[in-house]
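Notebook, bench 3.
Goal today: get a predicted structure for Innexin from Steinernema hermaphroditum so we can plan the truncation constructs. The sequence was checked against the plasmid map this morning, with no discrepancies at the termini. Length recorded as 438 residues. Pasting the sequence as submitted so the record is complete.
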Amino acid sequence: MLGIPFLDDAISKWFKPQTFDDPVDRLNYFITSTLLTFFALMVSAKQYVGSPIQCWMPMEFKGGWEQYAEDYCFIKNTYYIPFEEQIPESIDDRQEAELNYYQWVPIVLALQAVMFYIPNWIWKTLHQQSGIDLSTAVSDARHLRTLRSNDRCAETKRLAHYVSECLEMREHRRSPRRVFIFRFGQGLGSYVSMLYLFVKLLYLVNIVGQFMILNSFLSSENYQLSTWYGFSAFKELWDGEILPENTYANKIFPRITMCDFKVRRLANIHRYTVQCVIMINMFNEKIYLFVWFWFLFVAISTFINFIYCCFSLIPFGIRVKTTKALLKHAGSESLDNSVIREFVDSGLRPDGCLLLRFIEGHAGAIVAREISTALYSDFLEHLNERKSGPGSHSTESTTPGLEDGFSETYDGTKMNTPLIAPPVSVMSYPGPPKPKAV
């Protein structure tokens, strides 16, 4: 399929699912943003290509006059008066009953889609300053599922060495532009975790703000949208109560409205009041009913996910329990509780636990167990080296793709042996050998 190169690259870069998130993140920044963008395009097509409004004109309005009046009434706010009520004579009373939202529905939906994507943009921008390449680590972990046993074991060790280096050396690779609010997590190994929880909180604040925007946008001076609008509107729609005047559909999304406009003819100004049908409100009613229930589902999912992430990343005991479960299921031996606690505290730390969670979510539990076991073995080796002292040094490459297989071990006694033997003293030279007697 042919496409626009720059547009295709931008869409694939900004809106494709990532490898360092969870399903609730994708529910917010990808699925919800895509739905709102689709609704915005659908309403825009109906408004600017189709016929969003039709009005009942006087007999003298023909041709261009009728089109002019309908365009004016759509641009100028119409007002809703129930049929059992008299049309007010006061212009101010008519203005209070105006509907001032339906022209802005596509724009507001598009802005809401952008708001759902902003927390993910913050996460993508700031997590790169941590020194941990989450995308590469998770992508390589997903690639492990396609390898055979021998290659898989070697690649798992190599990836574990790489992750271990990132967790140990990231303090030296941190960007000086890092946000000040997360600086105090530098020495604790929790910069990425704190940033991730902050983004989760932004998702939660955003969905609460979306409900406030929805209520404010659809409410008018004569009618305020209720908190549980979705349930009441769905009940009326289910019962078939669509046409009665006292339903939510006619109060918020009226089909039949009134419009006032003036026409200048020579020196006289004539005022007309016409009755119009806003057909676009049939789409708006169904769209916003679905959006309300969708926002409710996203809000519940985001709140539960935020609480779960806080309890799985902040308490030290929960992180120890989760790591121990991964090591046990992988069949690791020598699982000492004190060593595991030290491994979680000084080896993995919160950022490493979060990385293992991403790997488990995208590559599977088996790969996460293998990598956690390799990280634990690597930690035990470093722990034994620290206990035995600086007696050995290895030059084996630990970066993926740079393994050369060369290792060198130095012996302390050999280090004291001079490379060149000292010269023999002249005074101790016995002289040339004596000739034998004949």
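Residues 169-188, 391-410, 418-429 have pLDDT under 50 and may be disordered. The first strand starts at residue 53 and ends at 56.
Flagging this for group meeting.
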